[in-house]
Amino acid sequence: MTTSDAATTDIPITAPSPVISVKPAVLEAPGRGEGLQVRISAPTTGSELPVIVFSHGFGSSLNGYGPLTDFWAAHGFVVIQPTHLDSRTVGLPQDDPRTPRLWRFRVQDMKHILDQLDLLEAAVPGLDGRLDRDRIAAVGHSFGGQTAGTLLGLRVLDPVSGKTEDLSDSRIKAGVLLATAGRGGADLTPFAAENLPWLKGPDFAHMTTPTLVVAGDRDELPLSVRGPEWLADPYHLSPGHKSLLTLFGAEHSLGGIAGYEVRETTDENPERVALIQRVTWAYLRHALRVEDTGWTAAQKTLSQSVTPMGRIESK
Q: Tens digit of pLDDT for each residue in 256-304?
């Protein structure tokens, strides 16, 4: 075991539980063009379970991000994963009239899940009556980070209407934004400005919900002229209680959070993924007021490690 491996195991976690996972549960979604497919994963034991609604990156689906979602479910969370319209499994044509507002359909997907929690709870054998509806978090990676951020108070400049509006949701009490886009305008590359118009004018000034931002210091996306520091904007530009986990040597897949296969990442690093699993789990338990021991230990572990894999700062 390396020093970094040992440091990761210093973050205490609860014992894992067997997980039951149901997919696809299909929610009727008028105006969307097709039903919303959802995966629900939950531990087979425990009550008053906090909930994570997870938004995937561009092109992924409810089948992605197992290294995170399986871990969270095995350690006490109910995890709900929609397949958004931009998923490769949907195959939406580029000239589809819904394309300019993919960002907004994503937010609507997340809200629809919250509206239909009763149906989703009933779809999983043995889950009835075990959700804690006062402890719900939104988590997302990349494009999914913007989606989750919008529920936390981030405002997006709608490329169709040219306006911003408040699409936050008071049912969401905390969030985690993984490798999420920063400021727009002159910070964008021409490619991003032309092809991803929902990145042009984000406003973080109203994103007040407690949030952990996770960024890799080698995340060189072709979306911003500023380099990896751009991914820390959701932390620096938003008010309120926020924390930032900067991962040393991490690229956009943060070591392999998007899936279990090597081909799904450019920077495979199981130790880094293990750190993200534990830190995000500990943070959400802290922010949702379950307990603070794990989050305190995570901060102490990274600050005292001889060879840390990252650093945590808070405001």
A: 999 998 888 889 999 999 999 999 999 999 999 999 999 999 999 999 9
- Indicate whether 4 pLDDT > 90: no
Q: Which residues does 246 contact at the CB level (< 8 Å), separation at least 6?
A: 215, 216, 217, 232, 310, 311, 312, 313
Q: What is the pLDDT of residues 197-227, one digit of tens each?
A: 999 999 999 999 999 999 999 999 999 999 9
What ranges make up the beta strands (E) of 161-254?
174-178, 211-216, 242-247
The DSSP letter of residue 307 is S
- pTM for this prediction: 0.96
Q: How far apart are CA 309 and CA 3, in angstroms?
A: 10
| Separation between Cα atoms, residue 270 and residue 24, nearest integer Å | 28
Q: 77: buried, middle or exposed (CB in 10 Å: 19+, 13-18, 0-12)? A: buried
Q: N- to C-terminal Cα distance for the chain?
A: 33
Q: Phi then psi for 171, rounded to 5 degrees?
A: -75, -20
255 vs 251: CA distance, rounded Å: 7
**Cα(177)–Cα(284) distance, integer angstroms:** 12
Residue among 299, 236, 237, 310 nearest 269 (CA):
310
